[in-house]
Specification:
single chain, 348 residues, alpha+beta, nine-stranded antiparallel sheet, 22% helix, binds pyridoxal-5'-phosphate, binds 2-OXO-4-methylpentanoic acid
């Protein structure tokens, strides 16, 4: 493809986190125990049988990734091998066929390349969100795995997940509802985890928060995660802590942040259970992190009928969150040397 194809006329810096229809998506079908080659298609609709297990029994999983434009024009993915692995972990859990690494990467790269005109330019603050998905399709009625599957990758240019641009301070409200059972599917990126969270998010927003914060569902004491992001906390002694829990999504952003903090920012890091009510006095700064959320400082949390301010006035970005955010985003955009080998360039 001609890399000089002109960009779409979009107001890139005004983009929010909404679906924007792009020109192509990648689709591959698994039938009779084998994956087809897959190809780019232009139809943004999927025709599936009315009995498809994805529709009735939520036999589906998905991923979330971003492509960024570097200053020199390279198109960069961040640790896509981990998304491929995580999709296959979910596939195995839900009795779906694994998507071979080669097919996953080809689908992602082809969808990105074919939609080059939609990739936000360097410096716009926007990026190309990539949504790989695996769904159980084909005729079915009883509770059993599908016999056909579709692996699809669509992309959409996006701006910040939470309304304000850049490093927005958000607030969370502890949910009275559980996200995932201790031995359930919480650690897999499966749609079923999210449907149950829609009402919790609505209730959190009615309280004036951006998102729900979930505590562990066995005892309601320990922090699990937010509706669409993992949690990191800077304690008053300077340690960066993050919840150890079997019920949360293993966030690629969190894993990267913890490694950057430890190896580049010289911070002490810990992954351990964090008890909200007894430890909150020791919280200095808090953040919600993920592909969509990037790193959003959390200023306030609502629980036990009141707001609890975490940092300063609850609206100010703390110095550690600022530093971690800058380190992460500069790395993802190719602004500094990738000494971890985390960036993957898509040849245009
Ligand atoms: N937790 C949940 C529930 C999510 O949906 C996401 C988003 O993917 C994350 C955490 C962050 O994961 P990652 O950093 O891999 O995007
Ligand atoms: C992501 O961060 O990629 C996600 O999938 C979160 C989603 C709820 C938008």
């Amino acid at each position: 493809m001609d890399a000089k194809v002109s960009k779409k006329e979009l107001n890139w810096s005004e983009l929010g986190f909404q679906y924007v229809k792009t020109d192509f998506r990648f689709s591959a079908i698994h039938r009779d125990g084998e994956w087809g080659e897959g190809a780019l298609v232009s139809d943004d609709h999927i025709a599936v049988h009315e009995g498809a297990p994805a529709l009735h029994y939520a036999q589906q999983c998905f991923e979330g990734m971003k492509a960024q434009t570097a200053e020199d024009g390279r198109i960069l993915l961040f640790r896509p091998d981990l998304n491929s692995q995580r999709m296959n972990d979910a596939a195995t859990r839900l009795l779906m066929p694994e998507v071979p690494r080669e097919l996953f990467m080809r689908g992602v790269e082809e969808a990105v390349r074919a939609n080059y005109a939609w990739i936000p330019p360097y410096g716009s603050g926007a990026s190309l969100y990539i949504r790989p998905m695996l769904i159980g399709v084909g005729e079915n009625l009883g509770l059993k795995p599908a016999r056909q599957f579709e692996f699809r990758v669509f992309v959409s240019p996006v701006g910040p997940y939470y309304k304000e641009a850049g490093l927005a301070v958000i607030s969370l409200a502890v949910s009275g509802m559980d996200r995932a059972a201790p031995k359930g599917t919480g650690s897999f990126k499966v749609g079923a985890n999210y449907a149950g969270g829609l009402l919790a998010t609505r209730k959190a927003q009615e309280l004036g928060a951006n998102e729900a914060l979930y505590l562990d569902s066995a005892e309601g004491r320990f922090i699990d995660e937010a509706g669409s992001a993992n949690i990191i906390i800077v304690m008053k002694d300077g340690t960066l802590v993050t919840p150890a829990s079997r019920a949360i999504l293993p966030s690629i952003t969190r894993r990267s942040i913890m490694e950057i903090a430890r190896t580049e920012l010289g911070m002490k890091t810990e992954e351990r259970p964090i008890e909200l009510r007894t430890e909150i006095d020791q919280f200095e700064e808090m953040g919600a992190c993920g592909t969509a959320a990037v790193l959003s400082p959390v200023g306030r949390i609502y629980f036990d009928d009141e707001w609890h301010v975490i940092h300063k006035d609850g609206k100010t970005v703390g110095p550690v969150m600022q530093k971690v955010y800058d380190s992460l985003v500069e790395l993802q955009k190719g602004d500094r040397e990738d000494r971890f080998g985390w960036l993957h360039e898509v040849e245009i």
